Amino acid sequence: MPKTSPIQLTPVGVVRSDIKRPMLTAGESGLSLDERKDSIKAYHRRVKASECELVIDPQWEELLDGIEGFSHILVLYWPHLIDPEQRKLRKVHPMGRKDLPRQGIFATCSPARPNPVLVSAVPLVNRKNNILTVKGFEAVDGSPIIDVKPYSKSYLQVENLIMPAWMEQIHREVEDS
Amino acid sequence: MPKTSPIQLTPVGVVRSDIKRPMLTAGESGLSLDERKDSIKAYHRRVKASECELVIDPQWEELLDGIEGFSHILVLYWPHLIDPEQRKLRKVHPMGRKDLPRQGIFATCSPARPNPVLVSAVPLVNRKNNILTVKGFEAVDGSPIIDVKPYSKSYLQVENLIMPAWMEQIHREVEDS
Questions:
Q1: Distance (Å) of CA A28 to CA A18, A32, B65
Q2: pLDDT (tens digit, 9 = 90+) per residue, B54-100?
Q3: ipTM
Q4: A63 touching B (Cβ < 8 Å)
Q5: For a Cys staple, A163 with which of A97, A103, A167, A176, CB 3.0–4.6 Å?
Q6: Domain assignments of chain A as residue spans, ordered by start
Q7: Which of residues 30-49 of A touch B (CB under 8 A)?
């Protein structure tokens, strides 16, 4: 294993959102599994319908020129409320659900991971100078933005996707039927 | 603009690939535009068909448990051959092509960007202990791996994608017809 040096990032902006705390924290107050599922589904529906702002540092405004031509963008951001200790976790029950088998962190979308750079593709509603308005973005208010890219078919679209049963189940339960 | 602190990442692995230098470097030796297009198309075809390895640091091996259940994964990696000076670029001709209008860096997939964390969704061919074999992954040999995630429909799939004309053109020219 060759040694690689640490990498330093400087956030290029910040998320301004009505979401003030992460979903799983919000759902963990002694609810039953069914109550939690309902709460998560309602949260998911609310997030999907809501808009929020990506406030890019004015020094980088010019880098956004041309992004208006894309219907969707990819946002890389940092879950700043994660306790650094959580980055040492090795396995978790997906979404904290004890009814689903424990998985290695790299097999989950858990924000608690060695390098918690989160990635989300969202519709771009509009750009005004250094501010992008996006829809359905789950990041918590104040999350540092690491990068913004156009949604590129060649890097992001896949064919014949197969997921394990536990993730299929989560998708079924979260999506509105 | 609230001040945000720098973020430190420690690579979790390294790419082992037959690709020894980036495509655009390879294509820039006094070729005509048509010759470059042909060269890029051939390069793209070769990459799509080839396999390479993601060698995860053995200390993180357990975090991969369960990833075998996914047909596709998302890889976040660092283009280590990028000169730090290039991270200050503001606008570029996409893929270095003077025939396409200059775009802000955030509107392109250029690896030269303030925080060059590159993202690619690729088919997972197999896992053996701490080594993942993937297909069609464009990273150069030796690239540090920042994160590996399952391909999640809810975070990565979009509907009714619209791209600007210049990117449609690149896609048309790179894909085999």
A1: 19, 9, 26
A2: 999 999 999 999 999 999 999 999 999 988 898 999 999 998 888 89
A3: 0.93
A4: yes
A5: A167
A6: 13-174
A7: none
